Amino acid sequence: MNLPKKCLVDTNVPKTANYALCPDEIPEKLRDCVKVCITAIKHVITERGLIIDAGNEIFDEYRRQLSMKGQPGIGDRFVKWVHDNRWKLPDDHRVTINRIGDSYKEFPTHGNLNNFDRSDRKFVAVANAHPEKPPILQATDSKWWGWKNALNNVGITVHFLCQAYVKSKCAGKSGP
Prior knowledge:
Mean pLDDT: 94
Distance between the termini: 27 Å
């Protein structure tokens, strides 16, 4: 797996990595996904390549959904690492985005993105506002699969860590 040096990490990546705490309870179709998410989290920490927003909206989402104690799972260690290191990252790793209602000034305009999940817009806005347009790591949210072409059209890349899972899950739905 070829992971990018700089990237944004959707919250479902560390949450999926945390499934490793109970390996016997991981559904068969998610086992490889959990392993890939663990590898991705370790890579982001090692490379210190995390891109986040300067206003802490992404970090606040991590804090709401993961344990700031840094345990028991690797996803929890990730949020603790973000807490301890977000101000030690290079300045260009913290991107300013501007909220407009339930979206952002930096969220790209594209007809097929009008229904994009409001809670995930911050990731796209940060990627779009960063001069290098770093990719977004995505694990299990199949809605993103339905939006991948529109995102690609506006220069946003989504790196699907669990592509087979997301693709099959999306095929069973009517679309975004």
